[in-house]
Amino acid sequence: MQEKTRIIIVGAAGRMGRTIRRLAEEEGDFVLAGLVDREESLGAVQAGSIPAAASLEGLGTHADGAVAIDFTAPEASMATARMAAAAHVPLVIGTTGFSEAQKAELRELAQKTPLFWSANMSVGVNVLMRILPELARALGPAYDMEMVEIHHGRKKDAPSGTALALGEKLAEARGWELEKVRCSGRDGIIGARPKEEIGIQALRGGDVVGVHSIYFLGPGERIEVTHEAHSRENFAGGALRAARWLAGRKPGKLYSMQDTFEPTANEQQ
Ligand code: NAD
User: Fold this and answer.
1) Which residues are catalytic?
2) Probe ligand 1: pick from 10, 40, 96, 125, max atoms within 8 Å of CB?
3) Crossing angle (nearest 10°) for helices 100-109 and 74-87
4) pLDDT tens digits, residue range 89-131?
5) Rounded to two decimals, what is the model's pTM?
């Protein structure tokens, strides 16, 4: 029988934190080793004998042998990642909205402790990451590429981390850099659309969990690919799967969901 994975949820009072906790308790393959959230939110998450603290560091030895899962905000996740690196606690991060400098620091911290970051933990989106570049290459430069993403009204960052990650894949397939070709707003007399452009527009409202539609607009036809997340459980399940995968891995690179699809050296033999 597979050993249970000890997990710590950072951002335990949040939408994702609460979903991960519920799923972990339902699945029964996990042991809740600790809960972390802001001091003022701790009352809402404290339950029974599960240790709770305002930081990963605050959990002390309760973090030994556990994998932390952090869905909070960029600054908070960076602080958690520094603490995880210092204490050699493996860490799965699902937070989006990191700056390039923060991502570079995460790659450095990944040399000290097993570190995993994916802007989207769903299997479907990660398969899209693989097939979109193929579509872009097969269709060729005559097909313009545009994207629309929709999320609930409380989301803080736009475009979504997933839209940017998918956009980077599309840009790479054409030999472009996303930040040089991204257009995230059109208004007024904008003139003809440049050929080297990828439009990514963000819609916000209601309780939409996450929709990403990618359009390939060509001569006389268009192809649309849409991924729609029906519930947060989809991401929470991916985060738990990532935590189980990360337990026992070595530091050395910033892992992502794509790595969990690669066969291990043993499986390849
Ligand atoms: P939320 O606002 O509901 O929850 C965030 C939680 O983090 C809150 O409970 C808050 O108190 C806590 N927090 C903030 N700063 C903290 C700190 N310094 N120390 C401890 N706790 C702190 O947000 P959410 O909807 O759960 O989303 C959280 C993040 O996850 C966002 O960046 C979102 O974009 C991302 N997200 C990623 C995926 C994915 O698949 N990777 C899926 C959904 C959401």
Assistant:
1) 151, 155
2) 96
3) 20
4) 999 999 999 999 999 999 999 999 999 999 999 989 999 999 9
5) 0.87
